[in-house]
């Protein structure tokens, strides 16, 4: 946890993360940390995740997931936005087990502003109206798509 941010109640959803001071564009804000698990472990412990609309799981790479439910930093409280001011950046380690996710500012962020990034959630199942409602976006941006789900064709490798 860093002294440049604070987690507290959010107008977007539940808990959010806010800047305690101005954050410069391109600056490192916080690392997304937690227990490292495989995709198989995540499926066993949490199911496919599509039915809850809430997760602290971050796909690290094709083998591992960061489970911020265990040992997570305040990064787990950063809310989704369709017009984010931050981005998640993969920092490759000496092997996939040592890859990291860093949250960086996309633009200058004012003191008191809530930090957000685009979750880029893709589910392998059909995106029904019911699933879109479960994964409803509440960011309030004029650019809001209404859902945190991305089309499967937009999925990045």
Describe the structure.
- This protein has helices at about 40-45, 130-135, and strands spanning about 5-10, 15-20, 30, 35-40, 55-60, 65, 80, 85-90, 100-105, 115.
- The chain is mostly beta strands and about 160 residues long.
- The chain has a single domain, classed as SET domain (Beta-clip-like).
- The strands form 3 sheets. Strands 1-2-10-7 form a 4-stranded mixed β-sheet, with no helix packed on it. A 3-stranded antiparallel β-sheet has the order 3-9-8, with no helix packed on it.
- A hairpin with a 4-residue loop joins strand 5 (about 55-60) and strand 6.
- The mean pLDDT is about 90.
How would you concisely characterize the structure shown here?
The chain is mainly β. It has 2 helices and 10 strands; from the N terminus they run ββββαββββββα.
Corresponding CATH superfamily: SET domain
**What is the averaged pLDDT score?**
90
Helix content: under 10%
Based on secondary structure, the structural category is mainly beta
Overall morphology: globular
Number of helices: 2
Query: Any idea what the CATH architecture is?
Result: Beta Complex
Regions with pLDDT < 50 over 5+ consecutive residues? Answer: none
Gap from first CA to last CA: 29 Å
């Amino acid at each position: 946890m860093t002294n440049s941010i604070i987690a507290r109640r959010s107008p977007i959803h539940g808990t959010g993360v806010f800047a305690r001071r101005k954050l410069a564009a391109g600056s490192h804000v916080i690392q997304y940390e937690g227990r490292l698990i495989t995709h198989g472990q995540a499926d066993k412990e949490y199911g496919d995740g599509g039915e809850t609309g809430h997760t602290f799981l971050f796909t690290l790479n094709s083998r591992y997931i960061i489970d911020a439910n265990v040992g997570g930093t305040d990064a787990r409280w950063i809310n989704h936005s369709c017009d984010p001011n931050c981005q998640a950046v993969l920092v490759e380690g000496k092997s996939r087990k040592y890859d990291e996710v860093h949250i960086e500012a996309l633009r200058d962020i004012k003191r008191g502003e809530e930090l957000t990034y685009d979750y880029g959630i893709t589910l392998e199942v059909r995106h029904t109206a019911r699933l879109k409602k479960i994964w409803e976006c509440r960011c309030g941006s004029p650019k809001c798509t209404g859902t945190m789900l991305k089309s499967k064709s937009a999925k990045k490798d």
